[in-house]
Amino acid sequence: MSVQLIVDARLSDPNCRAQARQRVVNGLLSPLATVPPTYLYDALGARLFTAITELPEYYLTRTESALLEQCVSQITEMASGISSLVDLGAGDCKKGARLLRRLQPPHYLAVDVSAECLLEAASGLARDVPNTAITAFVTDFASGLRWPDGVCCERPLFFYPGSSIGNFSPEEARTLLRSLSDLCQQATTRGGLLLIGVDLVKPAHLLQAAYDDALGLTACFNLNVLRHLNTLLGADFDVRQFRHRAVVDTRHSRVEMSLVSRRHQVVHWPGGQRRFSEGEAIVTEHSHKYTREAVDSLLRSSGFEPRVQWTDDHGHYLLCLAEALC
Ligand code: AVI
Fold first, then answer.
1. Nearest residue by C-alpha to atom 9 in ligand 1
2. Mean pLDDT on 64-72
3. Contact in structure between 156 and 83 (CB atoms under 8 Å)
4. Distance CA 207, CA 215 (A)
5. Is 224 in the pocket of ligand 1 (CB under 6 A)?
6. Does residue 85 sit in helix, strand or coil?
7. For residue 148, what is the enclosing H or E element?
8. Which atom of ligand 1 lies closest to the CA of 60?
9. Is ligand 1 within 6 A of the CB of residue 159?
10. How far is CA 226 from CA 31, 40, 89, 159, 208, in A?
11. With 181 labelled, which of 56, 86, 91, 192 sits at a CA distance of 20 to 30 A?
12. What sections of 104-144 are H helices per DSSP?
């Protein structure tokens, strides 16, 4: 079967693009400068992140992958009868592929904000699952998912791996998950599922190592956002004049990643500028860590009922299968 590509018109709409650019500028100009974490993922950023997932310190991807391997049969059983596997942040579709081959649902919807490798990866899967219709949907679902025009998934299994939910504040996470449970409510056949991967609270030294690795890959990943901003805004960030910082904030159960100015400097872009004093930071990412109870409560307050939770032996990572409440 051929793969259908759908690109959300909002991504290329000049007004939407101008608004997105303005949001970035507003973040840079706010008293505590911020950059939305999605801007970490230009083509190079995406590759750097893939490299991070192979680091010994970055336990998340490895642990999730092993957990998924262990529980895939149980998931397949519980998800029998789903109409669509909806792979959120599908990227190269590698994680989704394992589930897809086992589930062989009538439809696979691979969703990602970057078209970069989505179509190619989704097309590559078509051979493995000849009875599954495949749609590659390019959209930004950070503030809520909407079905692409002409597509409605009756009984979806949303797959949201990688603890990407942790890069949202708990309120934003609720809004996103709520949009998923709302989509399940709209369907005529009720009973959507969500399989989500979440990084758990753990000793600070493990988090510190994972977000400030010895090789310096996370530092490159973080600093690369400045190159991206130079391209996007026409700014003149000097990457060498900032350094990577990762701070474990136990009070908020999160790791805060930022870029610290090495000296007093002024950064310019057409129509604006920002002065940074020595030691002043730009926050680039929060990575929230949850307890099992906090995952339950997040899911319940978003319209899902947790059914099964799986964790690794160290209790570092959680996979949860939840059912949308009707
Ligand atoms: C994609 N996301 C879940 C990663 C995380 O762990 O928060 C991004 C990342 N940031 C630094 N290293 C990896």
1. 49
2. 96
3. yes
4. 15
5. no
6. strand
7. none
8. 6
9. no
10. 18, 9, 23, 31, 22
11. 91
12. 118-126
Please give the distance, rounded to the nearest whole angstrom, from the Cα atom of residue 2 to the centre of ligand 1: 33
Number of Cβ atoms within 10 Å of the Cβ of 62 = 16
2-52 pLDDT tens trace: 789 999 998 889 999 999 999 999 999 999 999 999 999 999 999 999 999
The total of other beta-carbon atoms located within 10 Å of residue 321's CB is: 20
Neighbours of 15 (CB within 10 A): 8
Cα separation of 246 and 242, whole Å? 13
What angle, rounded to 10 degrees, do the helices at 118-126 and 94-103 form? 30
d(CA 129, CA 147): 22
Q: How far is the CA of 155 from the centre of ligand 1 (A)?
A: 30
Provide the angle, in degrees to the nearest 10, between the axes of the packed helices 170-186 and 292-300. Answer: 50
Q: Which of 63, 220, 287 to mutate to test the pocket of ligand 1 (most atoms within 8 A of CB)?
A: 287
61 lines ligand 1 (CB under 6 A): no
313 vs 119, residue with greater confidence: 313
pLDDT-based confidence at residue 315 (cuts at 50, 70, 90): very high
